[in-house]
């Protein structure tokens, strides 16, 4: 996900440390991880050097194995940071990181191009799941505690008359990132954001996650936290329910990963996809995430009444349709939506990060 700020700076939401080691930078020893997409073997040793860093010994199996790999985490040697790190690096004084890999995520029939980008920040720009990085283009207007992942869709422009893509106009930051190569340097700022952090006071809570496109980024970080780490202080035993809306099957992001969670954790994970160009809703129209929400509305409202958290991330245009659907459902249930929404926000159950 990337959009421009002041026409030059783009914000991309990280997906959690590569394979999502929990929050802040970590001490990682003898980590050997072979990713099925990049065939990249990494070995790192990062020493914790301030109170925000936490040390763990990590062991990871290949993601190509039959079950979702587990990360064995020893008791923390340092106290957890109580507050997320915020704006360690600012636009005027960014941190220079290095591109590790750039991978196209979508298939040939997907509209546009979305890339998974791994950057090496050396453990100097720690963050929590759900926070954001800023990326400053160098031109013009994994489980290691040292890398972060970005999910970036290449921005393109269309001619207002022909409605066809105009190759003479390209997004600045998203194209800079998608065109980057291993070893390239990038300037990053942040981390920023406290809205989309995963609450951990109740490990048995229900988390309903609604995303469009690259908005799935923070939720991927959540799910890796829930299902790929063995952390003494957080053993997830609740329900994670992901709704993902994209154009077609070729546009699905990290579908293999989510499908594996569904197979290995059927009691703790649900996964519903809305493919607008391939599926029809009950009225015969295109299938959007709000239509999926409507299908499960009674169950979703009951979960919210019992304290479930609900998250929304993606294009700003997703929210009016979702809000309208939730309002209609509330009215059918004899509830006042404005009052219910106010109570959800007051209870800190409502989390929105749209762009």
Automatic annotation (TrEMBL):
It is found in: Plastid, Chloroplast. InterPro entries: FAD-bd_FR_type, Flavoprot_Pyr_Nucl_cyt_Rdtase, FNR, FNR_nucleotide-bd, FNR_plant_Cyanobacteria, OxRdtase_FAD/NAD-bd, Riboflavin_synthase-like_b-brl. Its EC number is 1.18.1.2. Keywords: Electron transport, FAD, Flavoprotein, NADP, Oxidoreductase, Photosynthesis, Transit peptide, Transport. One of its GO terms (molecular function) is ferredoxin-NADP+ reductase activity. NADP(+) binds at residues 153, 214, 276-277, 286, 314-315, 353. Its cofactor is FAD. It comes from the Eukaryota. SUPFAM superfamilies: Ferredoxin reductase-like, C-terminal NADP-linked domain, Riboflavin synthase domain-like. GO terms for cellular component: chloroplast. This is Ferredoxin--NADP reductase, chloroplastic.
């Amino acid at each position: 996900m990337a959009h421009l700020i002041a026409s030059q700076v783009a914000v991309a939401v990280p997906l959690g440390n590569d394979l999502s080691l929990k929050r802040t930078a970590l001490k990682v020893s003898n980590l050997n991880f072979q990713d099925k997409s990049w065939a990249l073997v990494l070995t790192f040793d990062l020493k914790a050097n301030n109170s925000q860093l936490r040390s763990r010994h990590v062991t990871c199996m290949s993601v190509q194995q039959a079950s979702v790999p587990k990360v064995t985490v020893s008791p923390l040697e340092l106290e957890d940071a109580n507050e997320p790190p915020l704006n360690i690096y600012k636009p005027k004084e960014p941190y220079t990181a290095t591109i590790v890999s750039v991978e196209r995520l979508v298939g040939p029939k997907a509209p546009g191009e979305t890339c998974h980008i791994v950057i090496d920040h050396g453990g100097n720009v720690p963050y929590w799941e759900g926070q954001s990085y800023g990326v400053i283009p160098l031109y013009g207007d994994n489980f290691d505690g040292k890398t972060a992942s970005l999910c970036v869709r290449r921005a393109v422009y269309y001619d207002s008359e022909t409605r066809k893509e105009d190759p003479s106009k390209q997004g600045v930051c998203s194209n800079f990132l998608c065109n980057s190569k291993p070893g390239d340097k990038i300037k990053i700022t942040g981390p920023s954001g406290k809205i989309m952090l995963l609450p951990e006071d109740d490990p048995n809570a229900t988390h309903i996650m609604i995303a469009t496109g690259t908005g799935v980024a923070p939720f991927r970080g959540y799910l890796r936290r829930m299902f790929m780490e063995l952390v003494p202080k957080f053993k997830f035993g609740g329900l994670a329910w992901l709704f993902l809306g994209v154009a077609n099957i070729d546009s699905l992001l990290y579908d293999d990963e989510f499908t594996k969670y569904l197979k290995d954790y059927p009691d703790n994970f649900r996964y519903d996809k809305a493919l607008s160009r391939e599926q029809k809703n009950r009225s015969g129209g295109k299938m959007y995430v709000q239509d999926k929400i409507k299908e499960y509305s009674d169950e979703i409202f009951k979960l919210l009444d019992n304290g479930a958290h609900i998250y929304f991330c993606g294009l700003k245009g997703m929210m009016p349709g979702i809000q309208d659907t939730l309002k209609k459902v509330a009215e059918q249930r004899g509830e006042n939506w404005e009052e219910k929404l106010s109570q959800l926000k007051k209870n800190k159950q409502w989390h929105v990060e749209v762009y």
